[in-house]
Amino acid sequence: MTSPTAVRSEVDLAISRARDVLLATQAPDGHWVGEAEANSTITSEYLLLCHLLDRVDRERETKMVRYLRERQLADGGYSLYDGGSANLSATIKAYFAMKVAGASVDDPAMAAARALIRERGGPVQADVFTKILLALFGEYDWRGVPSMPVEIMLLPRWSFFNLLEVSYWSRTVIVPLLILMDSKPVMRLPESCRLDELWPVPREHASLRFPRIPRPFSPKRFIWKNLFIGVDDALKGWERLGPRPFRGRAIEAALRWLEERLAVPGGLGGIFPAMTNAVLALRTLGYPEDHPLIRGQIKEIENLGVETTDSLHYTPCVSPVWDTSLAANALIESGLAPDHPQLVRAGEWMMDKQITVPGDWQVKRPDVPPGGWPFQYHNDFYPDLDDSAMVMMALAKIQGLDPERKARCMERGLAWFVGMQGSDGGWASFDADNSRLVFNNIPFADHGALLDPSTEDLTGRGLELLGTLGHGPDHPAAQRALGFIRKTQHETGAWYGRWGVNYIYGTWSVLRGLGAIGEDCSADYIQRAIAWIEQRQNDDGGWGETLASYEDETLAGRGESIPSQTAWALLGLFAAGRTEGKAVEQGIRYLIETQTADGSWEDPLWNGTGFPRVFYLKYHLYAKYFPLWALGVYRGTAA
Question: Which residues are catalytic?
Answer without folding.
Answer: 386
